[in-house]
Amino acid sequence: MAAGEQDPAAARAVPETAPRCRPAREPAARTYARALPIVPVRARGLTIEGADGRRYLDCASGAGTLALGHNHPVVLEAIRKVLDSGAPLQVMDLATPVRDAFVAELLRTLPPGLADRARVRFCGPAGTDAIETAVGLVRAATGRTGTITFAAADPADAAAHAGVDSHADVDVDAGLTGRAVTGPDDARGTPRARLPYPRDYRCPFGLGDQRGAELAARWTESALDDAASDARLPAGMLLEPVQGGGGVAPAPDAWMRRMRQITAERSVPLIVDESDTGVGRTGAFWAVEHSGVTPDVMVLSKAIGGSLPLAVVVHRADLDTGESGAHTAFRGNQLALAAGTATLAHVRENRLAEHAAALGSRILSRLRELAREFPCIGDVRGRGLMAGIELVVPDGDPEPLDERTPADRAAPPARSLHRPGPAAPELAAAVQRECLRRGLIVGLAGRRMNVVRLLPPLTISEEQAAAVLDRLADAVQTVARDHAEQAPSRHRRRPGRDPR
């Protein structure tokens, strides 16, 4: 080797040099690497070790793909078993023992009303592939076009509505396909509708309680029954039990039941996207179990593959028209199926959904205490180990939307009956940066990217959760203090000013 030349092997062994390539090699689109400038080299459970030797607590979990955290032993063993067996790793959708084991374990976990009459359809490995497959399925089954989706949905569900209401500012982990939802068919007049999604905070009707959910349900019912509406007789309704990329917004259970009733009465298939919420994340194995709803179609991805790319559509047998699915080669990845089987079984056998429910409740309680201390936290919400903290401009005490009843005053929900403050994506980004400095990885979500999102693995312990919350609280305190020091007095709220 000539003097001054670098050994190629040595260059490959120094991953910390990788960030130097980013300005020249990375696209202008936002990526996780821009917000999280670390170079992971090892990981186990909740912990990632960077090339610089620092360790981080990972509460992004691969955007929710890592139900058991990084490199869980049962997942690694399942993968090694397939590798050592000499079995083909990719066989399209041919029947194999690995695939049969996955289907059997999946059916064991599904809501009984669906499992008893389910068909399992494999598609491309991404959630957007599964969405397109599900929508194509109900279109073929009903002979209709058009799909009802809901505002602020994950772009994997509704990105194709970008021509109506751009989703360019939604979570960077979301896909941008969704052609089956509207897509090119819109140019040919395909019916479509995006209806209000009920929220306590930033309620589309300005109510912020169960009345908002009731109005959202009535709006949906009216849209379906209005002969002049472009939502009449859609091929299906697509919704998320908790909007993940939309800002970690759980749907009220009563609203979920109304959607099931409304669609059943009109023979409109209900498609529930459990990509973010499935496999124990919300405190039940599937989030629909909280409301007792049995959908006609379930879209499954992310955690379903046990950290490897896998997406599945489960649907009622009578929706199967016999039409072939999308012709993609990546429907039978044996490693992903084995990892997914191991993950499903481990979550079920170790009752990790119950652990997520109990620990998640304590985490949300601690976060709500934090919200009472810092006005820049407008709202705390979530379900199980899926939590969101909405950052707002701390512009004085928000005014009540209405007079509360004595019962309301006895048990007031945290800030849910107040006008939301202006979204503060810059504060959310600052919290994310301060968390990273303290060795904590968190994500951002929401249409304005002002929601700090926590998605720890289901295996997180009480001690680890306490460490996560301590680091997060310290980060919020720093950001709140810096903002207060920098904010000039003229920007403080004057009496009578509407903070929106």
TrEMBL record:
**UniProt key word Iron:** no
> Which InterPro entries has this protein been placed in?
Aminotrans_3, Dat, PyrdxlP-dep_Trfase, PyrdxlP-dep_Trfase_major, PyrdxlP-dep_Trfase_small
A Gene Ontology molecular function term of the record: pyridoxal phosphate binding
Q: Where is the signal peptide?
A: none
Keywords in UniProt for this one? Answer: Aminotransferase, Pyridoxal phosphate, Transferase
Q: Does the keyword NAD apply?
A: no
| UniProt-annotated stretches for the region Disordered | 1-20, 395-425, 481-500
List, separated by semicolons, the cofactors it needs.
pyridoxal 5'-phosphate
EC numbers for this chain: 2.6.1.76
**TM segments?**
none
| Bias kind Basic residues: ranges | 489-500
Q: In which pathway does it act?
A: Amine and polyamine biosynthesis; ectoine biosynthesis; L-ectoine from L-aspartate 4-semialdehyde: step 1/3
Pfam families, sorted: Aminotran_3
Family assignment from sequence similarity? Belongs to the class-III pyridoxal-phosphate-dependent aminotransferase family.
Official protein name in the record: Diaminobutyrate--2-oxoglutarate transaminase
Q: What is the source species? A: Streptomyces griseicoloratus
